[in-house]
Amino acid sequence: MTESLERSATGAILYDRSVISDITEAMFRADGWPHAEPVGGAAGSTGRGNTLYVGNVPRQFVLRHYLRGGVVGRFIRETYVWTGEDRSRSFVEWRLLAKITDMGLRVPRPAAARYCRTGLLYTADLITVRIPEVSPLSAYISARPRDAQFWQSIGAAIQQFHAGGVYHADMSAHNLQIDVQGKLWMLDFDRGRLLPPGLWQQKTLARLHRSLVKIKSLDPNVHFEPQNWEHLLEGYFSASRSA
Questions:
Q1: Would you say the pTM of this structure is higher than 0.85?
Q2: CATH number attached to the domain at 134-242
Q3: N or C: which terminus of the chain carries fewer CB neighbours within 10 A?
């Protein structure tokens, strides 16, 4: 994957010519595409109102406008403090996704990233290639119970990411997505990094466990039981030993 950079009056666009050969500022707006529709969020998830599916089948994209969350997001919704082009959130995530893609791990392929700067503040946007026919793990386990082999495969897939040093800042049951073959993909790598082995691996697993427990508490019909988590850990540690 190769980088191309185009500068604008207010910022710059980083993109991969093999994915989008002719990038324009308009592509970072809904009206710059022949088709655009909001990405629906699952119960209990947040932050989906800033994300659109754009373009037409067979090749669609996901356009995301970066928005702040938490307490700060109540007061400052979309702007970030400027600390340099290479540290802009969209450029950092684009380059991280490019590296993870080159590792052969299942993440969205980055297409284009943009920042628009006004003085000491900037806004940011990211375009990735849409992964066909995936659903959040939260929805996947709501449809019906999943067997031990499925949960073990999820654990083994997470271990592959961890073995590659891939840290996900919010590894929840909404950001883990399952395709039609039952394989795991990871989405939304804002604030993600590549790190050496460490305590962060256990912390991200604990974050996922809290997410699954919360989903179950919100909807008792969700098919997640303690033994499912045990099977996930079995797959994780089995993959770790065989790596």
A1: yes
A2: 1.10.510.10
A3: C
